[in-house]
Specification:
The protein is 79% helix and 0% strand. It is globular and about 65 Å long.
């Protein structure tokens, strides 16, 4: 009798895995035009030469990891820490956080950044590469945005949070590549 339950459990796991893989494949097919747009826009931005070095590295990271499912998995792990940092920044006076300058502040003063469309397309592509972790990251963002609205009384964009996660992953990726960078 125990073998029947084990067999049924294995069959259920196999069917669920097959359905997940089929849905992931369909999602990858649906996101393919966005990935092509990401490649076109990213290459055009890099070819223009008008980006700062940090933004150029960010765009290269997005282009190199557009199909990487580990990005969404790392997002699941990094989101709680970055969320706590952002929420603490909303709650505490600004003087506490002046030791860590935020380069996005100057971009916000000038308006939308040239890499914002890259961030949107990259997040869609990375979440399609690992849909299960992508759903978890989106749920975490929703919770953080809801808490941020409760704390501040105004709606903060989730784009800054997704950009912070991708920035952190890009910095982590750059630190883990030993000896590849000359500068």
């Amino acid at each position: 009798m125990d073998y029947f339950y084990l067999l049924r459990f294995c069959a259920t796991v196999a069917v669920c895995a097959a359905v997940y893989l089929l849905l992931a494949r369909r999602l990858a097919d649906a996101v393919h035009p966005m990935r092509l747009e990401l490649a076109r826009k990213g290459e055009a931005l890099l070819a223009s030469g008008g980006l700062r070095d940090a933004d150029a590295d960010y765009v290269r990271f997005c282009l190199d990891n557009a199909f990487n499912g580990m990005v969404a998995f790392l997002g699941v792990l990094l989101m709680p820490f970055l969320s706590a940092w952002i929420l603490a920044g909303l709650c505490l006076p600004r003087m506490v956080f002046t030791t860590f300058p935020d380069p996005r502040v100057e971009r916000r003063a000038r308006g939308a950044s040239a890499v914002d469309p890259i961030t949107d397309l990259f997040c869609r592509s990375a979440f399609a590469a690992n849909p299960m972790c992508g759903v978890i990251v989106v749920a975490q963002m929703g919770i953080v945005v809801a808490i941020g609205v409760l704390i501040t009384g105004r709606l903060r964009s989730a784009k800054s949070l997704s950009r912070a996660v991708v920035d952190a992953e890009s910095a982590l990726h750059a630190r883990l590549r030993f000896g590849e960078r000359t500068a």
